[in-house]
Each structure stands twice: as C-alpha cells, then as structure tokens.
Prior knowledge:
Elements: H1 3-14, H2 27-39, H3 52-59, H4 63-75, E1 79-82, E2 86-89, H5 105-111, E3 116-126, H6 130-135, E4 144-153, E5 156-165, H7 169-172, H8 175-179, H9 182-190, E6 195-204, H10 211-214, E7 221-230, E8 235-243
Amino acid sequence: MTANERERVRTAIFAGGTETSRRHTTWQSVMNEVLHRIRTERYGVGELIPTEQQLAAELGCARATVNRALTELAARGILIRRRKVGTRVAENIYTAPGPDLDHLMRHHIERAGGVYGYRLLESGWVSPPDAIARALLLDRDETVLESKAMMYSDDLPTCHERRWTRQPVAQQLTQEVLETIGANEWLVGNVNLDRIETVVDATTAGDAGCAEYMGADAASPVLSFLTCAWMGMRPVTYVQHTLTPGRRVPISP
C-alpha cells in the first residue's frame, strides 16, 4: 500500500465523526462523539471536558447515557475521571509508536529459529459477539470481517489467529491478502496503528475455538493474547492469538 492509499484509509476512519446537531440517543453514539472531539483536538490531551450535565444538554440525551459512555472510555484508559474534579483526556492515549516487527507472529517464530508458515482457515462478514462489538466500539448492527488462520513453526501448528476487523480497513483485506500474507502482516505493514491494548487470557483450546485446528483436546489449557489496535482514536481490529499447547514463542523485544 502506498502512502496515499494509507492516507485514504486514515481519512475514511476520521470521517466517522458525528454531527453535534444530531441527537445522540445511545451511549455508543455519545462515546463516538467524544472520541471524534479528542481526535480533532477539540478536547486536548490532559484537558478537562464538559460535565455530564453539559454534554447531556448539548447532545440531547439523558445524563445516564453520557455517564455510560464516559465510564466506558475511562475503563479503556482514554479518559480519567475524578470526583469533585471532573473528567479529563488521559495524557497517554497514544500507546503505540506505529508498526513494529514485534507485533508480527512471523518475527516471533523466526527469532526462535523456526521456519514460518501460514494458512487461512476461513473468513467472512459477521455480526460479532457482544464482547467484540464492545471492544471495537461498534454501532448497533454493524458487521465486521472475521478471519481465522493458523501459523506454523517448522510445519507444526503454533498459533491460531481469530481476528475481527471493521470498516474501512476491512475493505483492504482482500481474499488474496488473507490467503497469502494474512491480516496480521498486512495490518502491521500498512496501517499506522497509534494505540494498542493487550491482555492475556488463560483458557482452554475448546473455549478459544481452535482445538480442532491445533489437534488438541478441547480441555487442554492454552494462553490467548487478546489485542485491540486503534488508528485515529478508533479501534480498527481485535485479534485473539492462541498458542498451541507445548509450543513456545518468545515475545520479548
């Protein structure tokens, strides 16, 4: 992807802002409006934003709706809320300097001395589970591109990837891209990610939905790395990387 193409994707994401003259009847729409104002620097980093009462009056919604939106953004580290002080934009909202080799599973496998392999398992447009929709801050009934892939080290299944990607970035993930280099490498190489959220989940291969692809028992314990990547103050992709039982992949720099 050229620099101009990357800028078109970024512009399309930025265009997702809302009009303040329109009534905001859901907490998701209020949340997206606040993110739009942070993105356009109407609310600067470290600055106090209007009170719940002021936002409710301006946006034409209930105070409880605003409270739900601001509480969600505070939980994601975008806002900092203090009683009797107010709500301000966090100082460290941009947590990723940009594309980096350490975000690539290929890099991790090759650094461990393995020969990297990749296979697309399936892909398609879906209505994501509620937890994924919330992580991606999706509007109601918004669909995303779901892709599943397996990554190999020396032809041994090593990491299962299940990813949900929203528009307009998902439009760039063509079937050819998914079948060749995969979503993981394409996104790191072509999208200027500016915020990364990662948690580690101790689960089972069955609950992670990858037992059959790994050749593992559904009850086998596994580690899943759950990552939500942002671009322009908007989550664009959420991915679950699950390591095959018994396989080791170095993840330190």
